[in-house]
């Protein structure tokens, strides 16, 4: 499928209208996690869209999932981010690289929404540079002993299950990383309770996790010892598709408000859309959204076909996130003072959009990935030419 399924998207739109739209502004204002909406997203089946039915999923593809994420982000980017982190960053590596026992134990309750998941990679001293991760996991009998701490973790204070990135061979850098499933209640594992006070994405929980001699059974290792970097590359590339979908959803929400307002608001006796400078902003919004839509669909299609999508995911995420910041800024401009105030969600869209340039790899890191992939492809084709 190279486009969204109309019926699924229409059901998603109804769900968003009924469950998420009524609470979006209030949750942002109060900086509250939407527990009830989370449970209802689970009942709707959102978290299991790309996973097989045997784990409680819908057995569809990532195209369908990004289509739904986009619908949620049009109204509430925080909720879309909560869902993305849970369904892609937590469930994703368990499904793609976890053993059968791990999948059976964790996927069903995560996909149904009975349990909440988080993904813990970032630390105080380790952000873009994943090779500097300081959390350690040492084998002791049948368990790994985890020590360290994580920060800026989505769902940290509300999660029951965390997928944690730790170093099992510190001297090996990236090639010494491993992923573990850690459960709430394991002695020594806790959330500090600190909730980051953020510019945007305020209805999403962001916090810190601490690991103090946490005994994690060997069976909770995802993908094998020192195999974490490969799992991370795939997981983060997939999450970038979801983040691009969030950026596009925010942009579409801002565009829809802008066109309506430009048709309704009059100055100098005529509606705003008759002014060429306003028209120019509307046209740029539409053109950029169309371009981002194609980049996203191409990269998701590649993933769904089992092809390499590293460069394309970085392109979609980079383009869509920078676009979301530009479009939401212009949406405020079109609305004037009204757009700057909290009566409308435009200022919230603007605050939320900025995160898409940072989370799941900053714009600078996306540019590095794209350039590295270009160089890799060029060297490959030159070597092939030399071999002829
Ligand atoms: C709301 C929110 C939710 C988050 N959720 C999660 C989560 O669930 N799990 C998780 O693990 N993390 C999460 N993060 C962390 C996020 O992934 C990191 O913020 C991000 O990877 C960047 O790391 P950093 O903030 O440490 O910035 P740094 O890596 O310190 O970067 C600072 C600046 O330097 C630039 N820079 C860094 N390295 C290079 C380089 N090699 N070349 C050029 N420029 C460079 C960056 O692009 C950036 O502009 C979240 C962050 C936020 C804000």
Give structural notes:
- The chain has 388 residues and is an alpha+beta fold.
- Helix content is 54%, strand content 15%.
- The chain has a 4-stranded mixed sheet with strand order 1-4-5-8, with helices on one face. The protein has a 4-stranded antiparallel sheet with strand order 2-3-7-6, covered by helices on one side. The protein has a two-stranded antiparallel sheet with strand order 9-10.
- The protein folds into 3 domains: 6-116, Acyl-CoA dehydrogenase/oxidase, N-terminal domain (Butyryl-Coa Dehydrogenase, subunit A, domain 1); 118-225, Butyryl-CoA Dehydrogenase, subunit A, domain 2 (Beta Barrel); 229-379, Butyryl-CoA Dehydrogenase, subunit A, domain 3, CATH 1.20.140.
- The protein has helices at residues 6-20, 24-30, 35-44, 62-73, 77-97, 100-112, 228-264, 276-304, 310-335, 337-340, 346-355, 363-387, and strands spanning 117-120, 136-140, 143-154, 161-167, 177-183, 189-195, 206-217, 221-222, 266-267, 270-271.
- A hairpin with a 2-residue loop joins strand 9 and strand 10.
- The site of flavin-adenine dinucleotide (FAD) has 21 residues, from strand 1, strand 3 and helix 12.
- Flavin-adenine dinucleotide binds at residues 85, 119-122, 127-128, 152-154, 198, 201, 206, 355, 358-359, 361-362, 364-365, 368.
